[in-house]
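4.2 Preliminary Data

To establish feasibility before requesting continued support, the project team ran the inverse folding procedure on a target of 268 residues. The structure was first converted into the token representation described in Section 3, and no sequence information of any kind was made available to the design step. The complete token record follows.
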């Protein structure tokens, strides 16, 4: 088995744990701030992935959302680092609303090299390796060639931060509503990025996300011909939390960068 196939097997195992949860899962306690929940399943899936992925590549570092290593360490810039979100879409998971997915990125020398995202409720496995194309299950995927005006846009509301951040999300959402077919909000950033990669969504944005929310999706989207940057169009550094703009081939061919005032939460 290749390393990517072994990571996919680990993601299937994570999905089994998620599917074993009762229909609605009470949260085990809030992390810091508004809407920032963690259930016993987030911890269980992360523990499982830590064991399983350590066996795949014992020399790799491991950064998981639930061990909260937000700060990128210099040692991650060389060699291999797994960046794992055991359950992306935890609020959905708690309410048995969908989707919730497992997201696993393997960074090589500090940049996404392999991305695996699995939705266990629909058995959709998205996977990519740099230079080898992106796939949904066994089929190659490509981002859409439709212009933004003929695309759906998905947004994240960034409910975890100070009020200006979510205000800017809604100002930007309205700006994109006027320039697209309509707006969607799934509750899982990793899933939304896969939807751009597979051609269903033309553009996804969220004013602030952590590395484990977007690292695997970034690899999949880039291999599907799309692009991913910060919301002002600048390159991601793969080290810190960032605003995210994930764009299809068609949307990227036109004007899609939002006005800076809106990013700062100021109406125009
Ligand atoms: P989660 O479900 O793994 O917590 C929803 O707006 C998106 O933001 C989800 O992908 C969610 O991931 C993510 N998210 C949750 N808490 C966050 C935080 N503190 N910082 C950044 N993103 C977060
Ligand atoms: Ca999570």
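Position-by-position output of the design step:
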């Amino acid at each position: 088995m290749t390393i990517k196939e072994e990571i996919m097997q680990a993601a299937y195992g994570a999905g089994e744990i998620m599917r074993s949860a009762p229909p609605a899962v009470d949260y085990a306690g809030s992390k810091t701030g508004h809407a920032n929940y963690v259930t016993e399943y987030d911890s269980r899936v992360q523990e499982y992935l830590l064991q399983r992925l350590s066996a795949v590549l014992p020399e790799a570092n491991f950064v998981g959302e639930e061990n909260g290593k937000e700060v990128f360490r210099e040692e991650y810039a060389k060699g291999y680092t797994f960046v794992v979100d055991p359950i992306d879409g935890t609020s959905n998971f708690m309410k048995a609303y969908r989707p919730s997915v497992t997201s696993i990125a393997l960074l090589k020398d500090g940049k996404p090299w392999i991305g695996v995202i699995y939705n266990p409720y629909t058995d959709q496995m998205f996977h990519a390796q740099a230079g080898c194309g992106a796939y949904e299950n066994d089929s190659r995927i490509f981002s859409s060639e439709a212009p933004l005006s003929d695309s759906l846009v998905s947004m994240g509301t960034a409910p975890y931060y100070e009020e200006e951040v979510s205000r800017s999300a809604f100002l930007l959402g309205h700006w994109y509503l006027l320039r697209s077919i309509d707006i969607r909000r799934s509750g899982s950033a990793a899933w939304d990025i896969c939807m751009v990669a597979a051609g269903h969504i033309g553009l996804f944005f969220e004013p602030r996300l952590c590395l484990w929310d977007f690292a695997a999706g970034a690899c999949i989207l880039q291999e599907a011909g799309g692009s991913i940057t910060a919301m002002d169009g600048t390159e991601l550094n793969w080290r810190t939390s960032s605003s995210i703009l994930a764009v299809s081939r068609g949307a990227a061919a036109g004007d899609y960068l939002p006005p800076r005032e809106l990013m700062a939460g100021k109406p125009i």
